[in-house]
Amino acid sequence: MQKVIAATIAATLTFASAAMAQDSKPLTAQESNPDTMGWMQGFPPVADKTIRFTDADYFAFPKLRWTVCNFRELMPSVSVRRGVEAVSALPADPDAGLDAVTFTPLGGGADMTWNDAFDANYTDGIMVLHKGRVVYERYDGCLDETTWHGAMSVTKSLTGLMAEVLVAEGKLDETAPVADIIPELADSAFGDATVREVLEMTTALDYSEDYSDPDAEVWTYAQAGSPLPKPEGYDGPRSYFEYLQTVQKDGTHGDAFGYKTVNADAAGWLVARTTGVSVADYLSNRIWSQIGAGREAFYTVDSIGTPFAGGGFNATLRDMARFGQLVLNDGKWGDAQVIPSEAIARIREGGNTEAFAKAGYELLPGWSYRGMWWVSHDDHGSFAARGVHGQTVWVDPAADMVIVRFASNPVAGNAASDPTSLPAYRAVADYLMAQDATPQLTGREWIIEDIGGRGVIDNSPASLLFLPKGRLAGNGTCNRLIGSFTQQDDTLTLRDTGTTSMMCAPAMMEQEARLLETLASVERFAFDDTGALVLSGAEGATITARRR
Questions:
Q1: SS3 450
Q2: Residue 492: how many CA atoms within 13 Å on its side-chain side?
Q3: Which of 63, 70, 89, 116 is 20 to 30 A from 502 in CA distance terms?
């Protein structure tokens, strides 16, 4: 039982571990799809396709591809309530050109496309927001639009943000020793560490998360945090709170960055002690109930109901995108300043790059860590929340872009997915910024504003969408528009253009007929000074369209 307890909770804690090492050639993303594998299908599922929390491999590949969406079925949890407000809209403006965006993986190798990266990283779901609109959304594996997914160590960034909010509001003193706020930690390593050192993970702890070492402290931590009954004779800590009091000091606080999950649980305790509510309730009160979340979220908990502030958060992809947009907007949602902009600004500043460099993250040169967020210090000011197996909230202020990804990569550590993720995020940002600066024909939908100088019916849905491989789609006004096109320089030829055959109001039908007639004469395209697309033909007829 002791090994089961340790394995089940430690699997969700932090970065790469020998305990979670996988075969050198695991199943592909499609081969390991939970539906293909047949996990937990039927009532009851067959024995060899059943996954239990007490299975030592319940979070090992390929089972993890089912587990990441089903923690609530396996473990006790506490809700993060969404409140009673209406669900906030996520306006859709898909960009058909994104799948073809290319990048070179870190370390070299053959170029890849954004589409290639989806399966290469075992992506369960990914969303790209640009200027507050959904330009890309895709699902696979166990995930869909309404399914929860484990955020893993992205949880730490939620915890860190809550603490930064309290600092910005003057309710939590970042220079104070932790023991001044939590006397129970006075005799632990955290006692003389400052709040800031906890939030930047520069605490000096005699604590190892080396899963290859059976004597590493992480195993005691795992047992303490497990909700399962303890084995007979067990006399160690029985909760996250109890375990944190046992951590001892090794070195000088503030000297070096050390990524250790216990810091996040200490930060969660700081938030709870300062506010008088759990991190789950504080997150609900301050953020989740304020952004029009589609569903409640939840945390997994220990045996006394303490939320796992270092890795236990679960939410839908769309709600994580809403959260990412809140961060990109400097804490503002709609007209409301939900959290102080100063909290986001402090995170964006980053931490001590010299202290971070001592941790040896070869793929993250020049990065730092602040407020439990990873700060790139690139020329876009990008920063991220990151979790094992590929979980990401990527914020790029220069591109006005948020990328949220849930994944179930066979390898836990982000070093496995960073080479095909970090350059992909930048390539998408560059593509979107280039589209803004110099529009391309393909990509996002063009909303028609004028046909032949006669305008269009107010709020009519006439549109054009130029897709890869010369496909044309859109909306004629009443009906779906289909066709094909070829483009060379500013010359444009449309072929086989037509619509489906639903009848509607006579004025709408007349506009649709006029659009089809004008499209048949198109020979050229251009973009005017305002970024509008102008299609023109030999007889001088034009169509003007604009992106949202």
A1: strand
A2: 27
A3: 89
Q: Got the DSSP string for 363-427?
A: TSTT-EEETTEEE---TT--EEEEEGGGEEEEEETTTTEEEEEEE--SS-SGGGTGGGTHHHHHH
pLDDT for 310-319, tens place per residue? 999 999 999 9
> What is the full DSSP assignment across 63-117?
THHHHTT-HHHHS-EEEE---SSPPPP--B--BTTGGG-EEPPTT--S-EEHHHH
126 forms beta bridges with 138, 405
What is the rounded CA–CA span in Å between residue 130 and residue 93? 9
3-state secondary structure of 464: strand
Residue given tokens 């130029």 in the structure block: 466
* 153 included as an active-site residue: yes
CB burial string 167-191: b at 16+ within 10 A, e below: bbeeebebeebbbeebebbeebbbb
pLDDT one-digit tens code per residue, 278-303: 999 999 999 999 999 999 999 999 99
Instruction: Tell whether pTM > 0.85.
Output: yes
Burial class of residue 420 in the structure, from the number of CB atoms within 10 Å of its CB (0-12 exposed, 13-18 middle, 19+ buried): buried
